[in-house]
């Protein structure tokens, strides 16, 4: 299924922020989004739970993209987490998610241990995850088609439109 107009527009907006000179990489795009938002985004690796490749954590004054340590191809995961951010996916508080899925700890303990937000585990979680996946696939595809030192976004768009 093709990406929705919303996803396509979000990818275009991110690529519009790409630096005009030098190699355009996913970390540089993340930095450009960070600067555009006026809110730092930290990229780091961590040992995440089994089956989790990445997480977007929101703090009062910055965001963190955690990528699973040792992941062989991390660019897709980074693009996926960036998709959650630029598409405005809110997620739910980790403490709320934990309360809904466990009976072994008190809410005070859960809140203390997991004082951050998690991904899209709410009622629309699957739709939001698919939207973030569509964003990642399209961004990586379009990023791969950009010249390493782009002179004009118009040239890139014309190339995409006419092959």
Outline of this structure?
The protein has a 3-stranded mixed beta sheet, with helices on one face. It is mostly helical and 163 residues long. α1 crosses α6 (125-145) and α3 crosses α6.
Overview of this protein structure:
This is DUF955 domain-containing protein. It comes from Mycolicibacterium duvalii. With 163 residues, this protein is mainly alpha-helical. The chain has one domain. The protein is 50% helix and 10% strand. It is built from seven helices and three strands, in the order ααβββααααα. Strand 2 and strand 3 (63-68) form a beta hairpin. The longest helix is centred in the C-terminal third of the chain and has 21 residues, at 125-145. The two termini are 20 Å apart.
Number of helices: 7
What helical percentage do the residues reach?
Answer: 40-55%
SS-based class? mainly alpha
Order of the strands making up the biggest sheet: 1-3-2
Tell me what portion of residues adopts beta-strand conformation. 5-15%
How many separate domains make up the residues?
1
DSSP strand tally: 3
Q: What is the rounded Rg?
A: 17 Å
Order of helices and strands: HHEEEHHHHH
Q: Mean pLDDT score, rounded?
A: 79
Q: What characteristic shape results from the CA principal axes? A: globular
Report the major sheet.
3 strands, mixed
Query: Which regions are unreliable across 5 or more consecutive residues at pLDDT < 50?
Result: 115-121
Task: Determine the N-to-C terminus distance.
Answer: 20 Å
Organism: Mycolicibacterium duvalii
Protein name: DUF955 domain-containing protein
